[in-house]
Amino acid sequence: MPRAVRSRVRALHAQTRDPPAQTDTLYPESPDRPRVYSSQVGAPPVDRGRFPSDNSLPVAHGSFLERSGKKLYVKGTTYGTFAPGPDGSQFPARSVAEQDLRMMAANGFNAVRTYTPPPEWLLDEAASLGMLVMVGIPWAQHVTFLDQRMHREIEATIRSTVRAYAGHPGILCYAVGNEIPSPIVRWHGTRRTQSFIRRLYSAAKEEDPAALVTYVNYPTTEYLELPFLDLLVFNVFLEQRLQLRKYLARLHNLARDRPLLLGEVGLDSLRNGTRAQADSLEWQIRTAFDSGCAGLFVFSWTDDWYRGGQAIEDWEFGLTSRRREPKPALETVRRTLSAVPLPPGEDAPKVSVVICTYNGSETIAETLSRLQEVDYPDFEVIVVDDGSTDGTSEIVVGYPARLIRTANRGLSSARNTGLKQAEGEIVVYLDDDAYPDPHWLRYVVHAFKEADWTCVGGPNLAPATDPPLAQAVANSPGGPVHVLLSDQEAEHVPGCNMAFRRDRLREIGGFDPRFCTAGDDVDVCWRIQERGWKIGHHPGALVWHHRRPSIRRYLKQQVGYGRAEALLEDKWPGKYNVVGHVSWAGRIYGRGTAQALVRPQRVYHGLWGEAPYQSLYERAPGTWWALPLMPEWYLILGLLLPLVLLGLAWRPLLVVSTPILTLAVMASVAQAVKGAVRASAPAGLGFLGKLRYRTTVGLLHLVQPAARLRGRLAQGLTIWRRRGLRGWSWLGVREGALWSERWHTPSAWVEALERCLAREGVPVLRPGPYEGWDLEVRGGVVGRVRLLTATEEHGQGRQLVRLRLSPSVRALPVLLLTILAGFITIPPPGGTWLPSVLSFLASFFFLVRVMLDVGCAEATVLDGLEKVAAEMGALVMDGESSHARLPIEEQGGGGQTALATGYHMVAPSAPALGQLSLGVGPPPSGADYPSSPDGARRTS
Predict the structure, then answer these.
(1) Residues 318, 78: Cα–Cα separation, whole Å
(2) Rounded CA gap, 736 and 862, in Å?
(3) What is the residue-wise DSSP string for 337-398?
(4) Which residues, at least 6 apart from 702, have a Cβ–Cβ distance to it below 8 Å?
(5) C-alpha span between 765 and 771 (Å, rounded)
(6) Rounded average pLDDT over 685-708
């Protein structure tokens, strides 16, 4: 068996030879048709005069493809495999194949995918028709190829095939593999398989550096991470539109900033009927292009299909029959492809594009000129000049845009000015150093039509033409990124590319003027979500965003971002953790995003590896692994350095502090090295150029957190802030209760306390789905208090809400306190008591800080509970009386029920009750309340 397999691999390249003349009954041979020879070595040169003048190779340009500077949407169909001819070539007679290509071109196709290397005459014919060919290079991927030492022969096959076609104008891309079966991948292991595909990719690029190279994957091995490929290609067969839309959103996130092509879509007409096939292909094609795909291949051109040594007759996926008779699907596909990427549509709402600029003369001309190329029927451009001093306004007046000049009041104020002047139903914000894709607005408007989004964002990529330093900045942390809660819903979209429903943005008051340079986009996204509205993300709504062209300007930007983070944390304390680092609920996407040194991953295989969709899942890194990603990490390094210096006078401290500081520094360096290795280097750089480039990226990874920290320190650092806390209480677990004569939902009590504390600026944290508490109030870095509630129903809408406050101290301060206390017990060296005294003072400081943090948090919660009781007309009871038996006395007129001793009454505030929207009201009418043992009625 191994010998037979190896022989088959050696024979694969022989299939590229021109087949002999065959008698064909489908398309008669034209005797006057001139024969065009291939450009293969030893053959007459190709007649390039037959090819269109636009014969440059396609290139990947962000999320899409380009050819000769123009956007290229791949509208293709698959071709083959066919029964082998006498010479082994798996293609029909030349006259049949050429007529097939003409029919494809006449029906709107501009690409064809082959599963075996085609004869060069087929490539020549495709090129003469303006079509491109995706060349599949088959090998024995259905066997354990790595165990059978076939890798050299497989690589040789890839090299010889690519070498034969190198530079041909009919090449779209090479596919160095197609759907390695999941059992084979599991057998070899994910990493070995990924490494082998990379080896094949590198071999193909060495033979034809200018060509695009890919591997065709499918959902069952979706977990393969192949970031080196030029484009992402997936075979996807889904027969429900919603499922396809959701899965394509996932694939776009896997593709990141690369084009996404669907290698196969289709439906079997034998089982579903020709009409169902046509209808299905219509929405499959529309959904693919609506989602932002760079193209697709319809499977397949004809029902004439041969595989595994026999003709396939129980499937009919073709657009034409075996005798090339068109099916209804062919006309449907032709009509649908003519409207790519999106149908014009009669309902095209007016869009207002707002550009806010301050001294943007270097780039705003490019922005405005590219906006004139945008393909959308009805949009206006508004430029708000926020007090520029460099002649920006003089540049703007030369373009069709409305210019509004204001004094320099900051970015948020400028955006609000544009919002007031906007006439469109949708307001889109674009930075003055960015420019859009030609179909940008079509994708934005389509996203608003598909779902009830309040805001929509899209990717922003650095142009490949930017200088290497700007590219290095693009691969460094701190850039504009988007955060996704799911594959379609976002938690945050960056301000350089965000769109809003105008009326809803006005309803929330626009942008907060306190954010003058940055942070306004984060704030507005959080306010939208606070209203219960949602934010969408569309991968096709692409803009190109220039990064800072110098290190000095990059660091200045990061300092500004640090200031903005401090302002955001002051307004949204609950969104930040104890050290002041934002806690995103979603996943961050974008080039240069810093990743933890350890990324816990696992693959969902299903039982026995039989799940049809097998995905890679990553858990969020733990606190310890995430620490080096935070700007505050450098503050820790700054605190460790004095300990090491002090240890020079006291050896025990030196022995402990030096390894800790060394590990901390190594963690930062390792993080920088990891970022430099992951960075994609610009094309055309030699070995030394790439080394300099990656060194720059690594250095930027090191200095960026320090610049961010500088901005935070200038605005006020979290760890020495005390937000909204007041009073102090002795530490300990406290229990109490609230008695209410009016029924409220159990969550209403917690929500009322949360809102009450938030109004005072107290940082409040909600629990996750696995927590056993209801609210957490941070007293500071060291301590916190957690609230647990339980609602007892006592009939007729009366409730007893039990409360438990539990103080808690974080593990790290306790560990430090223990270490410092241990140093006190060590005998002083040489009679000096300075280290012991310093250790004692530090221990005392930590102990006092624990008591202050927890005591203040507990007092603040108790004060908040009394305010909530006053607002909701409840009585506050202490722990002892709340556990006494409650005599239930029915009274007419809804009077207050008499309780046992030991409570103090808080007078209800009727206006406050009316102001709170907490779902307050009586229990549902008609509910059946079972009786309790003491005769009181309880709600279910």
Answers:
(1) 9
(2) 10
(3) HTT-SS---S----EEEEEEESS-TTTHHHHHHHHTT---SSEEEEEEEES-SSSHHHHHTT
(4) 668, 669, 672
(5) 12
(6) 90
Q: What number is the average pLDDT over the span 909-916?
A: 29
* Beta-carbon count within 10 A of 721 CB: 17
- DSSP code at position 12: G
Report cis status (omega within 30 of 0) of the bond before 300. yes
Close Cβ partners of 66 (under 8 Å, ≥ 6 residues apart): 58, 59, 60, 72
Per-residue CA distances from 119 to 242, 421, 495 (Å): 40, 61, 50
Q: What per-residue string of b and e applies to 76-111 under the rule 16 or more CB within 10 Å gives b?
A: bbbbbbbeebeeebbbbbbbbbbbbbebbbebebbb
d(CA 150, CA 200): 13
Spatial distance between the Cα atoms of 688 and 109, rounded to a whole number of angstroms? 44
Q: What are the residues whose beta carbons fall under 8 Å from the beta carbon of 554, sequence distance 6 or more? A: 473, 476, 478, 547, 548, 700, 704
pLDDT given at position 364: 96
pLDDT band at 899 (very low <50, low <70, confident <90, very high): very low
pLDDT at 720 over 70: no
Give the integer Cα–Cα distance in Å for 31 and 28: 9
Q: Measured between alpha carbons, how far is residue 205 from residues 162, 167, 176, 200, 208 in Å?
A: 9, 12, 11, 9, 5
Q: What is the pLDDT of residues 500-556, one digit of tens each?
A: 999 999 999 999 999 998 999 999 999 999 999 999 999 999 999 999 999 999 999
Strand 616-618 and strand 601-603: the pairing is antiparallel
Alpha-carbon distance of 381 to 742, in angstroms, equals 55
CA pair distance 762, 858, nearest whole angstrom: 12
Instruction: Reply yes or no on whether the pLDDT at 442 is more than 50.
Output: yes
User: Is residue 47's pLDDT more than 60?
Assistant: no
Contact between 374 and 440 (Cβ < 8 Å): yes
Q: Is 669 left (phi over 0), alpha (psi -120 to 50) or beta?
A: alpha
Position 782 pLDDT exceeds 60: yes
Closest CA to 296 of 260, 345, 247: 260
- Is the separation of the CB atoms in 193 and 180 below 8 Å? yes
Cα–Cα distance, 509 to 496 (Å, whole number): 20
Nearest Cα residue to 586 out of 679, 512, 488, 514: 488
What tokens were used for 72? 């290229």
Tokens of 576: 């930040």
- Cβ atoms within 10 Å of 818's Cβ, excluding its own: 11
Q: Which residues contact 783 (CB under 8 A, 6 or more apart)?
A: 807, 808, 809, 810, 849, 850, 852, 853, 854, 857
Tokens of residue 557, six digits: 């930007």
Alpha helices for 216-268 (secondary structure H): 241-255
- Predicted local confidence at residue 719, as pLDDT: 53
- The alpha helices in 476-550, defined as continuous H runs, are 502-507, 520-530
Radius of gyration of the chain (CA): 34
- What angle do helix axes 274-290 and 328-337 make, rounded to 10 degrees? 20
Dist CA 206 CA 598 (whole Å): 33
The mean pLDDT value of the chain amounts to 81
pTM above 0.90, yes or no: no
CA distance 672 to 690: 16
Tokens of 203: 């071999």
Higher pLDDT, 756 or 880: 756
Coil, helix or strand at residue 71 = strand
Q: Cα(247)–Cα(236) distance, rounded to whole angstroms?
A: 9
Instruction: Evaluate the omega torsion of the peptide bond into residue 117 and state whether it is cis, within 30 degrees of 0.
Output: no
The SS3 of residue 51 is: coil
What angle, 0 to 180 degrees and rounded to 10, lies between the N-to-C axes of helices 94-106 and 120-128? 30
Rounded to whole angstroms, the Cα distance separating 910 from 890 reads 23
